[in-house]
Amino acid sequence: MKKLLITSIIFAFVLAVPAHAEQLVVVVNKNNPIEKMNHSEVIDLFMGKYVVFPDGNKATPVELNNKSEIKKAFYSELVGMSLARINAYWSRLKFTGRARAAIEQPNQESLLTYMSNDTSAISYLPRSQVTANLKVVYELNE
Amino acid sequence: MNKSGLVLRLAIVIIFTAAAVGLISTQLFYSINYKNNLADGYQSIEQLHKTVSATASIATYLEDSELANEVINGLTSNDIINGAAINTSKLNISSKGYTDNENVVSFRLFSPFEQDREVGRLSIMPNLTHIRDQADAISFDNAVALTIEVTIISIITILVAFFVITRPILGIGKSLHNTVPGTDQRIKTPENHQQSELGVLVNDINKLLEKTEEQFFNERSLRNEVEVLENRFRMLFENATNPIALVESSGNILLYNQSFRELLTKLGLPLKKSYGPYLQDLFADKKLLALTVKSAFSNEEVATGEFELKAKNSDKSFWVQAVITATVSKDFKEYNQVTLHDISKRKQQIDRLSHKANYDKLTQLFNRQAAEYQLTQLINDGTPFAIILLDLNGFKPINDIYGHDAGDEILTHVASQIVKSLRKEDIASRWGGDEFVVVLPNVTSNEDIKGICKKLKQHIEKQHYLSNANKSVSVGASMGVAAFPDDQTTLEALIRSADQAMYRAKTKKSAEHYVSFSDEDTPSEQD
Questions:
Q1: Which residues of A touch B62 (CB under 8 A)?
Q2: What is the pLDDT of residue B527?
Q3: B510: pLDDT confidence band, cut at 50, 70 and 90?
Q4: Which residues is B388 bridged to in the sheet?
Q5: Which residues have a Cβ under 8 Å from the Cβ of A16 and sit 6 or more positions away?
Q6: Could you say which of B40, B158, B276, B380 is the most buried, measured as most Cβ atoms within 10 Å of its Cβ?
Q7: Do the Cβ atoms of B63 and A100 come closer than 8 Å?
């Protein structure tokens, strides 16, 4: 009984912690010619400044929906802002009609599928979930 | 209104000071206000910048001209902003009327996601005109308020100064101006000033007036005393029977009394400013007076003496006893007091007495005593002279027949005849009875003497009409001559010689031998 409890606590930690603690990486379709991106280039794409990769190819940012812990962690690590502030930023831009937010995917599977099918796609994942179809172009700092 | 009046002066000073202070403070206030407004303006701009900085950052980050325009429009809607501009590497958006000048405030815009990534600039042009207008408006209001305040304070100050200080002072001044010192007039203390400095001033003035009155009173009574004293002295001086004069050492007459004036009138002299030192010009013998005064003064004595005065139009002689004193006044000036005492009457009496003593009462010739005195004088002086002793012939019968009065008449007649025959300097005297002695000073020649004797004889022998007896008679004369110092050197010897010579002539009883000389040997000899 006691053993089971300890095990379940450890399991819970194993399940819960990795989602936060694990390093996030920015990935693109493996067929995308871009190899590496820097911090600013990542920000410029995800915050709507540019719609193309530095090499001039079209870029389509993709991400999970708002509730995603990964999304929260990503923006926090990328620009140090909460999701609420990120949303406020986008809502302000909506009036100008110019910028657009990343395409949202309901779950991990659909995201991975989208990524595998669109060479212009760019998204972020915990390092452990990177598949063979994807290419890591930027690693967010721990 | 008086140009240098207190109120006017005070008002001018207050008005000018108020104007100056108002002007300076308005200027100062304006300058401070403008600076403050400017600072406020810049602060507002800063705040506005902060307000729009998030949006501006996004706009510049995204280089979104729409958003940038929105920001600029938002900014320029403020009064204090004239224009604004957002510049990035690609975007240059500015409002209408924006010019890049030194007043423009520039802010660096950073990426909203990367704090150290500069993405553009926001430039804001402050509306200086608006700021200045605002400052002007505030300053104007302030100036108006200040002017009103200063005016009110000035008016109140002037009014207070006038009613509390100037008017009471003017009142005191006017009152003092109309006050005659030495009277019982006093100055009234102005209302509500009993305890103030003005009250004290009035009190002090009144004390001064009181003291002045007292002093005036004392002086007046003192003056009265002096006047009374002076009148008494004047009375004493003016009514003195003796002429008195106070004379400066130079001779100027300072003071004289009524008697002195009368004396001058008597002397027939005008009232002059000066009659020389100690009035010496009034005296007949100036030298004698000067000598007397000098010797007395050198012995520090009062000079006194009897002197004759110089009478101008009168043959009467004035004699005075003069008392001359020297006095030195407090300021070391020398004065002479001359007091005269009229002794003319006494002098005349003395003269009369001396005349009686020396003259024969009947003939008015020198009597024997006087003649002897004169002769002694001549002898003592060593003056040569001749004497003629004259004895009448035929006098005794006239005296016996017609009486003593007739005799006296004859003697008087003879005496006048003798005087007629002589020079002025010759001396005629009645020696006694019907004997006369004639003295001829400085006559030495026998010829001259004989001439005189002849003249004498002729005169004496003239007929004389006796009115009482109604008869003309005549007498003769025998004369004996003696000379000094040729014949004799003493009076007795001279008289004796002359007497003997006369007897010799008498014994002849001849008309030719009526005179004999004492040095003749023979009595009969005659020339």
A1: 48-49, 93, 98-99
A2: 40
A3: low
A4: B438, B481
A5: none
A6: B158
A7: no
Q: Which residues pair with A49 in a beta bridge?
A: none
Closest Cα in chain A, distance from residue B79 (Å): 26
Here the tokens at position B323 are 């008392």
Tokens at B49, concatenated? 């910048």
Distance CA B366, CA B369 (A): 8
Give the ipTM.
Answer: 0.79
Scan residues 53-72 of B and list those with Cβ closer than 8 Å to A.
55, 58, 61-64, 66-67
Q: What is the 3-state secondary structure (H, E, C) of B166-226?
A: HHHHHHHHHHHHCCCCCCCCCCCCCCCCCCCHHHHHHHHHHHHHHHHHHHHHHHHHHHHHH
Alpha-carbon distance of B441 to B387, in angstroms, equals 9
Share of chain B above pLDDT 90, in %: 12
Q: Give CA torsion, residues B394, B396, B398, B400, to 10 deg.
A: -150
pLDDT band at A17 (very low <50, low <70, confident <90, very high): very low
Mean pLDDT of the region B328-354: 86
Residues of A in contact with B119 (CB under 8 A): none
- What is the C-alpha separation between B107 and B87, in angstroms, rounded? 10
CB of B392 within 8 A of CB of B432?
A: no
- What's residue B511's pLDDT? 62
**Structure tokens, B70:** 């929105």
Planar angle of CA B245, B250, B252, nearest 5 degrees = 40
**pLDDT (average), residues B473-488:** 88
Backbone φ and ψ for A78, nearest 5 degrees, come out as -75, -55
Place of tokens 């900085």: B53
Confidence label for B526 from pLDDT (cuts 50, 70 and 90): very low
A130 touches chain B (CB under 8 A): no
Among candidates B61, B64, B111 on the partner chain, residue whose Cβ is nearest the Cβ of A98: B64
A111 neighbors A65 (Cβ within 8 angstroms)? no
SS3 content of chain A, % helix, strand, coil (to 5): 45, 20, 35
Q: Residue B267, CB half-sphere, CA atoms under 13 Å: how many?
A: 24
